[in-house]
Amino acid sequence: MNEDLLTAKRLLSGDEGAWRRFIAEFRAPCYTLAKRYRCHKHFEDFYSDLIFSLIRKDLKRYKGERPLGEFVMRRFSNIVSTYMHKAKRRDTVLIFEEHALEPSASVICEEEEIYTLLVTARAELKGDERKLLEDYYFRNRTLDELAEKRGVHATTIMRRLKKILGKLEARIEGR
Questions:
Q1: Same structural domain, 24 and 54
Q2: Residues 77 and 10 reside in one and the same domain
Q3: Does the residue 83 lie in any domain?
Q4: Do 164 and 125 meet the contact criterion of CB atoms below 8 Å apart?
Q5: Confidence band, pLDDT 50/70/90 cuts, at residue 151
Q6: DSSP-assigned states of every residue in 108-150
Q7: For the chain, what is the mean pLDDT?
Q8: Could you tell me if residue 92 is inside a domain?
Q9: CB–CB of 164/129 below 8 Å?
Q10: Who contacts 36 (Cβ-Cβ below 8 Å, separation ≥6)?
Q11: Quick check: 38 and 20 in contact, CB under 8 A?
């Protein structure tokens, strides 16, 4: 049995010394990765999430096919990526919420011009197009949910979304 698999078994059995060594060994590389993603201010939360996910389920799935360090770093990267994706979505939702379309909310965007383009492009969409875009991208509704609600097939919803995005893209690129 290789060393990494033995370490994983010790961690799963609750070996306190193994956990101390593990936490010390991976803290610096994980911090470096968080810093690369420019979200190191949340590092402690990410690292705690990593440890808890390893305890709950991830170490049980480790079979020793690749180095434990690679396995751990990939899991940490997934945790950070998920956070970044959700944070990006939350920020975008602010732009599209009705109360955020007030002039005082323009501080959400780094540049006034981008804010104006987004608001203008959004305003130029028909009501049902705007609602569909917001429901799918900013309220996390699935294609199936949207299709069922509108009485059409999910493929139709996907085509409509692509068409709407094309309109937005053309409007923004045309400035």
A1: yes
A2: yes
A3: yes
A4: yes
A5: very high
A6: GSSSHHHHHHHHHHHHHS-HHHHHHHIIIIIS---HHHHHHHH
A7: 77
A8: no
A9: yes
A10: none
A11: no
What average pLDDT score do residues 141-160 get?
90
Whole-angstrom Cα distance, residue 168 to residue 121? 6
> What is the largest distance, in Å, between two alpha-carbon atoms of the chain?
64
Confidence check: pLDDT of 164 > 50:
yes
Q: Do 102 and 82 share a structural domain?
A: no
Q: What is the CA radius of gyration of the chain?
A: 22
Enclosing domain of residue 36: 3-87
Burial 9-33 (b: 16+ CB within 10 A, else e): ebbeeeeeebeeebeeebeeebbeb
d(CA 169, CA 163): 10
| pLDDT per residue as tens digits for the range 96-141 | 444 343 333 333 334 455 556 666 777 777 888 888 877 876 677 7
Tell me the residue type at 27: R
**Helix, strand or coil, per DSSP, at residue 10:** helix
